[in-house]
Amino acid sequence: MEYRILGPLEARRGGTAIDIRGRRQLTVLAILLVDANRVVPTDHLVEAVWGRRPPTTSRSQIHICVSSLRRQLFAGDDLIDTRAPGYRLRVAEEELDLHVFQARVAAARTAVQDADPLRAVAELRAALSLWHGRALAGIGGDAVRALAARYDEQRLAVHEECLELELAHGPATAHDLAGELLALVAAHPRRERLLALLMTALYRAGRQAEALDEYHKARLRFVGELGIEPGSGLDTLYQRILAHDPALAGPAAPPPEPVRAARTADRAPRRLPADVADFTGRRDSLTGLLTALERTSGTAVPTAVVSGRGGVGKTTLAVHAAHLLAPRFPDGQLFARLSGPDGAQNPHEVLGRFLRAYGLGERDIPDGTEERAETYRDLMADRRALVILDDALTESQVFPLLPGTSRCRVIITSRRPLPGLPAAVRLRLAPFTERSALELGGRIAGHARIEADHAAAVALNETCGYLPLALRLAAARLAAHPHWTVADLVARLGAGSAWLAEMEAQTGVDQAYAGLSDDAGRLFRLLPLVEAADFPAWVGAPLLDVDLCRAEALFDELADMDLLVARPGPGGTRYWVPGWILGYARRLQAPEHDQARRKSHERLLGALLYLSEMAHRRRGGHDLRQAGNGASRWELPGPAADLITADPAGWYGRERPWVLRAVRQATAAGFAEHAWGLAMCTVTFAGLPAPAGRYPDDES
Predict the structure, then answer these.
(1) What is the mean pLDDT of residues 89-103?
(2) What is the pLDDT of residues 573-604, one digit of tens each?
(3) CA 218 – CA 178 distance, rounded (Å)
(4) Whole-angstrom Cα distance, residue 463 to residue 213?
(5) To the nearest whole number, what is the mean pLDDT of the chain?
(6) Could you tell me the domains of the chain?
(7) CA quadruple 292, 294, 296, 299: dihedral positive or negative?
(8) 312 Cβ neighbours under 8 A, 6+ residues apart
(9) Residue 36 to residues 5, 91, 95, 522, Cα–Cα distance (Å)
(10) CB-based contacts of 620: which residues, under 8 Å, 6+ apart?
C-alpha cells in the first residue's frame, strides 16, 4: 500500500489509486494515517467527524466507517487493528509520504551537523518534492484542518531552511533563488524570514534596488495592516544592503569540476522518458510488475525482466510502471537504452552517464569498466533509486549496471528472456487482445471512427499483428487523415505504405530476417504465396520441396525470431503472419527468382489439391483424375495425409477460406487445372456452415 496526505488524501494499491467513497471514511482514514501505527481512540475519531455534537449512534457509525475502509482498501489483508480504546492502522516503512518527508528532514539536519550542507540541501529538496498541494486538501472538519495547518507550517519552515542553506552554501544561483522566493513572499507576505532571504538573494543577484524596494513594501504593509514596524532583523539587513556590506556576498565560487558536481548533486536525476497518455491494456502485467517491485524482502536488488518481440510494448509498460513507482524512489530514476541501430550499447559508457547524472565530474569517473561499476554501486548504496535498462541484448550488458542494494529497483526489457539474470518477476508480453487493440485505436483515432466499421477495424488489427507499436502508428495515420475510413487505411496497407519501413526498423524485423538460416529465409520469402488467414505446418513442405519434419523445424525458427506467430488449435498448431510482415516478405522477392517461386506455388497448390481430393473422396466424391483433371499433385506422406483428412468436414471447415482463395489465385497464376480441381472438391462440402464472422461468404 501507498498513502499520500501531503496534498489531497490518496491511497494506492499496486500503483493504482483507490477511489475511497464517503466523506466520513476519508476523515477517519486521515486521522488514522496521521497517527499511523498508534492506537487512535474512538472518541477522537468521533470528534474529528462530528465535532463536539456527535449523534448518539456515532460510535457505531465509526465502526461502520472502519469496516468500509477495510473493504475498500485491503483485498484480504486487513491492516486496521481493533485495539482498545480504538483502532490502529499499520503502515510499513516508507508507505506514508509524511513519514518519508520527516525522515528526509531528519537526514538533512544530521548532514548539517556533519558539516555536509550540500547533502542537507539534497535531502530537503527531496522532502519538499513529496508535496502536491496543501496537506489533506479537500477534507473538512476542524480537527483535520488543524492537523493540515500544522503540516503546512512544517513544510514552509523546511522550505525556508532549505533556501537559507542554499543561499549560504550554494549550489543554486542567487538569481534562481530570488525567483522562487518572490513567489513564496507573495503567498506569505508577513513571514520576515522569507523577506530576509528574498532581500539577500536579490542583493547577491545584483538587484540591490529591488532588494531595498521589497523592504519598503513590507514596511508599508506591516505598518498599514498591523500598526507595527518590521523586526530588527529586517531593519539591520536593510542597512547592510545600503552599505554594501561585504559579508552579504555569496559563498566563494568553487573550481569548475566541483561546480558541476555540486549543481547536479543537489537534486536527484529524473531521466525517465515521457509516459504515454493513452496507455491501454496490460492490467495484469502492470499489477504483477508493480507488486513484485514493491516487495522488500532479502538483500538482493528486486529486478523485473519484461521480454517479448519488438513492438509488443515492453518499453511502454516499463516506463508507465516507472512513472507510477517514481514517488517511492526520491533518490532518482535512471534510464538507458542498451541497443539501437548501431548495435549494443557498451555498459562502460552507460556507467559513465549514470555517474555524471549523480554529479561526478570527469576526473572522478574511473577509466575501467569494473572500477566504474564499483563506484556506481558505492554511490547507490544508501539511495532509493529506480533503474530502467531498455532493450538489453545479453546478460553481460546488464550485470555491471545493477545496483548492489535492495533499496533500489531495476526494470529490464529485452526481446530475449535473459534467463541468466536473477529476477523477482519475469513477464513475457504477448500481442494485444482484440479488445485492447480496438480500445487503443479508439483512443488515438476516435472511438466513433473505429466503431463505425468494426469489421475493418478487426482487419486492421490483424494486419498490424495486434502489436501495440504497429496499432499506434496505424491509428496515428487515421487521426492525421480525418477523411479516411478504417477500410481506406487497410487498403493502403495492403498496397504498401511508406511508414511500414519505420515500423520494420523499430520492431527489428530486418535484424530478425538477417539472422535466419538460408532455408528459413527462403521459406519466409515464399509465405506470401499462402493466401490464408492462418495455415498448418505442412505447407512448408511443398513450398521448399522438403519433408514435413524439416518444414516444422523451419517454422519453429521463424516463430523464434518473431516473424510469425504459432497458435494452438483443435487440428494442431497453425501459423499466422501479420499483414505488415507479409508486406516485408513481398519486398524481399527478387525478379530473378520468379521461376523458382512459380514452381513453389505449383507444389503448394498441388499439395492443397491432393488433400482436398482425399477429403472429397471420403465424403463420397468421385476421383478427379479419372474425370480428366491433369493438375500436378504434391503428395504428402500417406500417414500424415490420412491424419490431416481423418475428419474431412472438420478439415474443410478450417481450410475453406483458403481453398476458395486458392481457386482464384490458381486461375490468376495460369494453373487452370488446379483451379478446376479445387473448385470441384468443394461440391461435397457445399452444405457446411461457414466459419462465423471472420471471412466473407464467397462460396459461389
Answers:
(1) 87
(2) 899 888 878 888 888 888 878 899 999 999 99
(3) 16
(4) 68
(5) 85
(6) 1-169 (1.10.10.10), 171-247 (1.25.40.10), 283-428 (3.40.50.300), 434-507 (no CATH), 594-699 (no CATH)
(7) positive
(8) 429, 430, 431, 467, 468, 469
(9) 12, 6, 10, 66
(10) 684
